Amino acid sequence: MAANQAQPQRPHRNPIVAHDARELRKGLVTIVPELRSRALRLSGNPAQADDLVQDTVERALRFEAQYELGTNLRAWALSILFSVFVTRYRQKRREKNALRVLSFDPNAWTQPVGARTDSRISLTKTTNAKLDALPEGFRKAIMMVDLDEQSYRDAALSLGIPVGTVMSRLHRGRKMLKEALAA
Question: Domain of 162?
């Protein structure tokens, strides 16, 4: 390119500045098209881009108290968008790794022959009561994986959630049950 020819530059955007909560919300509405454009470039998928924008706006509203009034709202919202994108990417990578690890375990996807379908009869009344007191998502994960001896994959399919979510709920549910039983 010749030295006298100027390269095209990105248009300079004036910062959007909010001085109160009302201006912040109004500013977020203004930059939604920019957020969607950036989300589409990051994800390459229109549906995922829409989800990213929705989560970004929701998170911005939830944490609006952390926005420093008088600063660049566009930059703040775009950093939230990128953070949401990276978090999702890492979560998908963890789920893929979990599935890969589980795929090498020959017993991970099967249920033993003659396994009982209702193992709860062997639990004490106190344990059953503490288990029943857990929030539904955690209780179901524990019952399906620990008591009914379902694989993570089967439990995820039954509950309609990702395998990583089953693993997370199982870990947290076991921890809550342990604390409840220790009390």
Answer: 119-182
